[in-house]
Amino acid sequence: xxxxxxxxxxxxxxxxxxxxxxxxxxxxxxxxxxxxxxxxxxxxxxxxxxxxxxxxxxxxxxxxxxxxxxxxxxxxxxxxxxxxxxxxxxxxxxxxxxxxxxxxxxxxxxxxxxxxxxxxxxxxxxxxxxxxxxxxxxxxxxxxxxxxxxxxxxxxxxxxxxxxxxxxxxxxxxxxxxxxxxxxxxxxxxxxxxxxxxxxxxxxxxxxxxxxxxxxxxxxxxxxxxxxxxxxxxxxxxxxxxxxxxxxxxxxxxxxxxxxxxxxxxxxxxxxxxxxxxxxxxxxxxxxxxxxxxxxxxxxxxxxxxxxxxxxxxxxxxxxxxxxxxxxxxxxxxxxxxxxxx
Length: 342
Prior knowledge:
Radius of gyration: 20 Å
Order of helices and strands: EEEEHHHHEHEHEHEHEHEHHEHEEE
Number of strands: 14
């Protein structure tokens, strides 16, 4: 059962947060771990009789958890004006990017509701972005091929393969999936390859791009970018705007996640910086409900590639409202983020 865990009165603006669990429809496996349940934190920011909502999906890889997010939220001071985003940002404590993203999303949701506009309109953006990929999580080659066949009629336009089995079979995994689908493929290695493995595998794979083949900060990153026949995108190497310039040396593109960047505003800054450096941009996600995914969907039109399937992996989405149409995660046209609890 969910329970209220933080309640801070902040002048004319009230913040409440609670932890909740999201249960996946099937065990989700990557090179680092397997997951059946994701723990997230829901944030509500109330101004008068209007509330905005956001979701924090803490990333264990970066030493964040629901507990650390809730502790950080206890120290948040929002002030009196939910539109004073620069001033609010200056007052936020350091760290805890996922919790910061939840506050950012809740403020955008609140602003949209107060003004009667969806968030993408507040930002001057188009509604629709590129189609989202569907993740084929890590398994043996035949298992990944069978799972690919099972989603053939679900409307997805591209697939993202989780690799990094550390068993010499990653090229076989890609070949097995390719044998049962003609959809464009990309892969995410989650830092599991060595430099030599990347040089061995990538020429044998037909992929749109390969995400984070090496450990973040690997000194061989710039050389791999030069030698790889497949475009390299980085995820664990790229968190906020401060990381983008260095990523241009080691990658052809960056994966932006709101839970890493700290929210919509920082993500938009990262897109513009990446474009100025000639980098491609993709929008990724964690296992999140429709509340977390909606925040990303409203800025998806800025991206070259989109991986927003976190809510589609759940047994039940507690925050419906996104429209999955022709492979695209379309944000609602209702005010704010446009999702509401089921």
